[in-house]
């Protein structure tokens, strides 16, 4: 298929309570004095922590950035929550920074995976021989130690998600993660490696034991994803991801708990074989960028019984770069979601009404990672700069 990347079809409208003109894309001033940033993580106090290629951990504030640590890994994504920063040292072992103490360990962390910060622990993907497990890591004495571990192997690049599938407070939620890696069923390999999951787990956050019966895909099918999207529908919390295989490409699916078991509740029509899509949620609506490496078709999904019906919104978007582990480059605040265009140097904003607004600023380098808090979306560029999208 010819790789034509159409100029996005964009619809102009006003934001709810804010105007398009108030949303800006600018260099993030607190990081201007730092070079070659490789990792970013928003904190719960509104600042940003970054890791440079040299292995320096900085906390950036409106004044001068503060150096917190040296000799940390620039390949393991940090997680900043509850006044703590979970990361890895330059040998790849788990490290926990707090303002009073630094907890070291001999726990080898997966380089392309994600972590979850809990009130008294960190959930992360750890190496165990030739496999990877999900682990609960807690500080004890001077060290950080594993206090629970999943029985099943998880994807080496898994991005676990804390979600309360029974409804209620997300911080009381448990852990959904993609597991049981396979490299034979569906050899597409556009998401960083050959491994795709065949199981979806929902684990209790303290013991990492199953809270619901595993969703195991039939032979030949895989979850073509490394992360999950939370979807809220009428007060219920659900999961969205993609399933591929059986001679077909990716289809978007919604999964929930029924009778103490994870079950498929709705799915879209599949794309052709070896064609992928990356779903994301904003408000109570599920969207996806279909074929982000080719045409970048942005669609909205509406559930009708067990079917996800799509409505095309535009083309020329891309929330994934071919072969990269960052499988969803959209990022959202309370007011808007940022969607990159193909080429990753320009973005559009989607407001709460689902209307799109292109930002005219062109970035000096392609977007590599995105992170967000309630007010800002941070864009880490391939040249090591950080830019920010915010409501001025």
Characterization of the model:
It is a single chain. The N terminus is likely disordered. The termini are far apart. The protein has a single domain, classed as 7 Propeller (Methylamine Dehydrogenase, Chain H), CATH 2.130.10.10. The chain is an all-beta fold. The strands form eight sheets. Strands 18, 19, 20, 21 and 22 form a five-stranded antiparallel β-sheet that branches. It has no helices and 33 strands.
The CATH level-2 architecture is identified as 7 Propeller
Radius of gyration: 20 Å
**Spans of at least 5 consecutive residues with low confidence:** 1-18
Question: Count of helical segments?
Answer: 0
Assign the structural class, choosing from mainly alpha, mainly beta, alpha/beta, alpha+beta, or little secondary structure: mainly beta
Number of domains: 1
Tell me the distance between the termini: 42 Å
At the fourth level of CATH, the homologous superfamily is: YVTN repeat-like/Quinoprotein amine dehydrogenase
Please tally the β strands and state the result. Answer: 33
Average pLDDT confidence is: 93
Largest sheet: 5 strands, antiparallel
Q: What fraction, in percent, of the residue positions are helical?
A: under 10%
How much of the polypeptide forms β-strand, as a percent range? Answer: over 45%
Instruction: Write down the CATH class.
Output: Mainly Beta
Q: What does the overall shape look like? A: globular
At the fold tier of CATH, the topology name is: Methylamine Dehydrogenase, Chain H
Signal peptide: 1-21
Keywords: Signal
């Amino acid at each position: 298929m010819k790789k034509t990347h159409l100029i996005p079809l964009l619809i102009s409208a006003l934001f709810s309570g804010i105007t398009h003109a108030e949303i800006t894309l600018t260099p993030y001033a607190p990081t201007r004095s730092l070079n070659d940033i490789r990792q970013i993580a928003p904190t719960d106090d509104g600042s940003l922590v970054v890791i440079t290629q040299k292995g320096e951990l900085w906390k950036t504030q409106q004044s001068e950035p503060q150096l917190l640590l040296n000799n940390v890994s620039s390949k393991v994504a940090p997680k900043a929550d509850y006044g703590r920063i979970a990361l890895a040292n330059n040998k790849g072992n788990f490290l926990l920074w707090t303002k009073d103490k630094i907890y070291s360990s001999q726990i080898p962390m997966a380089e392309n995976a994600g972590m979850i910060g809990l009130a008294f622990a960190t959930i992360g993907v750890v190496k165990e021989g030739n496999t990877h497990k999900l682990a609960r890591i807690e500080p004890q004495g001077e060290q950080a130690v594993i206090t629970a571990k999943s029985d099943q192997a998880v994807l080496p690049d898994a991005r676990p998600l804390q979600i309360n599938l029974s409804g209620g407070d997300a911080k009381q939620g448990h852990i959904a993660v993609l597991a049981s890696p396979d490299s034979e069923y569906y050899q597409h390999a556009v998401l960083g490696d050959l491994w795709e999951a065949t199981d979806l787990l929902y684990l209790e956050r303290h013991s990492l034991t199953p809270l619901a019966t595993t969703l195991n895909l039939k032979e030949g099918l895989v979850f073509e994803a490394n992360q999950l999207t939370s979807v809220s529908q009428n007060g219920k919390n659900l999961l969205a991801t993609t399933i591929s295989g059986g001679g077909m490409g990716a289809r978007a699916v919604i999964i929930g708990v029924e009778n103490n078991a994870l079950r498929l509740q709705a799915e879209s029509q599949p794309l052709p074989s070896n064609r992928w899509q990356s779903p994301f949620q904003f408000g109570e609506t599920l969207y996806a960028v279909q074929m982000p490496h080719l045409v970048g078709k942005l669609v909205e999904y509406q559930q009708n019984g067990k079917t996800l019906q799509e409505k095309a919104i535009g083309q020329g978007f891309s929330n994934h770069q071919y072969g990269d582990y960052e499988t969803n480059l959209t990022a959202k605040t309370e007011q808007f979601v940022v969607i990159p265009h193909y080429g990753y140097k320009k973005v559009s904003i989607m407001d709460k009404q689902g209307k799109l607004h292109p930002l005219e600023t062109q970035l000096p380098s392609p977007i590599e990672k995105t992170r967000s808090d309630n007010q800002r979306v941070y864009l880490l560029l391939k040249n090591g700069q950080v830019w920010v999208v915010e409501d001025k």
